[in-house]
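Priority: low. Protein: Periplasmic chaperone PpiD. Input follows.
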Amino acid sequence: MFEFIRTHQRLMQILLAIIIVPSFAFVGIGSYKSFGDDANTIAKIDGKPLTQQEFDNAVRTQLDSYRQRLGAQFDQKMFDTPEFKQNILDQLVAERAVAAEVNHAHLSVSDAQLQKVIKEQFGGEGAFDMERYKTILAAQGMTPTMFDQRMRRDMTLQQLGNAIQSTGFAPRAVAKALSDIGAQEREVQELLLPVADFVPQVKITDDMVKAYYDKNSKFFEVPEQAKIEYVVFNSDAVMNQVTVTDADVAAYYAANQPAFATPETRRAAHIQIALKKGASAAEVAAAKAKADAIVAELRKNPGDFAKVAKAKSDDPVSGEQGGDLGIVSKGSLPAASVEAAVMKLKQGEISDPVQSDFGFHILTVTELKPAVVKPLDAVKTEVAEALKKQKAAKKYSEMAEAFTNTVYEQSDSLKPVADKLGLKIETAANVSRTPSPMAGQAPYNNAKFLAALFSNESISSKRNTEAVETAPSTLVAGRIVEFKPATKRPLAEVDAAIRQRVTMEEAAKLAAKAGAEKLAAFKKSGDATGFGAAKLVSRSKPEGVNGLAMQEIMKADTTKLPAYVGVDVPGMGYGVYRIGKVQQPAVQDEARRKSEAEQINSIVAQQEMYDYIELLKQKAKVKILKPIAKTTVVEVK
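Result:
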């Protein structure tokens, strides 16, 4: 099972992304039903086409995600590979196969389940705020209706995934056997032959030194280095040249008064008397009578609204919260009649029963805050900053074009562009062709910029590089002032270091030879002469034994004891290890065993899911019509 997971890591990542963790990366079920079929189709799943445009959108989404994570180090060329594109295609195909099964099985999520999850995600510990909810969705380019559709889709997929994974479990005997292997203890004695003991036997000749020098010449190279000048153009440079006057601020404030107004907010609660669709006149009358009775009760004791809602409301979600509907705004409630009634109530007033498609509602406003317009003085700084950013955004494109053109047209110096745009010429020494960890986030320490800086033309002519985008809204141009090509340190300069290195290598060979001879002798005799004191070791408690040695000790065949293993330990010498006992710990770590059993069951469940996805792909008759090599990774600007 562990080997399955190790060899199918990419597939498991796809499954986790699609089934276990809800994702909004790709299209929803609604889009799945409406695919077109044209010459751009690259695959068919359940008879429905996957188009080149949909593939490009998925690639763009992934690239945007990597760009945000990698920042200045992002280079799209790293992702322009068949493997990257194949991974995207696999994700899309797997998702469409699962979505097809969801459609065929008519799986769905109830309104109550959906509302509960949305309130949990966006309400937190407090009450649900519809305006905050809309604002968050708008920032992602979605409306509540779009988000509802995607949430239904993801919740349905999650239910399907959970149902399949719940069928996977490992027998207790298997879990116990694997835990026993992990906890196993072995009694070990060590005989170490230190490499230092063999140094006196080594004789190093000049020919050996020369041979090592020639064979490992790359170790003695001094990389090329350059002293450079560079200028950085970014949004900060633009902001420094933008000013905003008090008159500008006042004019903007006057023209955008609604933006500085806090609208009236009404927090409402309701008690619902439910009616099924198509209820008879008698049932409607009975529900109305029940609602009238509750209204009469509440008007005598308005403060009991929350208590009555918990006891008598047929809305399971709001009822548990004392009938709370959160902040009510235009379009926030599914029933227009209920929303209209809420807008007419005073705080604490109890409404007459209001009928909707869901039944009758008794309403009250629990909190009412009137609209307020912030004065100019309170928002002056905010407005000035917004205006400055607005002006800078307009000016950025113009200045960026001037920056790009000037460094190219006057390529023998950075001074013209620095003077023209008010930029500072920076310098850096010992700059190499690849980014240096020591330089950190320095503007020039970017792979794309360094590639331009160390181009043949830039080195030979010492002309300006082109303007290179090293981060969003950040352009860098530079030139080499002094260049030192790569050189090789002379043999005389490194002779002593080579002799020391070769001596240790030859001594290690002698130690390994002597150790191998001792190992063979011990295996014949079973002798323990020369070994150190016995100690009990395990995978989690090596007790000072070298890591490489521990690997060999725990892998050793112990069907016949004592068992012996020999290990070449780099930098130390050669170790011979005698294994005298194999046993389980006297006291088992039950918490660890329980955790391991859960991990094993998880692996089995994931394998069940993998098999199920493969079955769904067969059921959906997946056909790849356009080889992945012919798809094109879109450029992200």
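The radius of gyration is 36 Å. Residues 79 and 242 are 38 Å apart (CA to CA).
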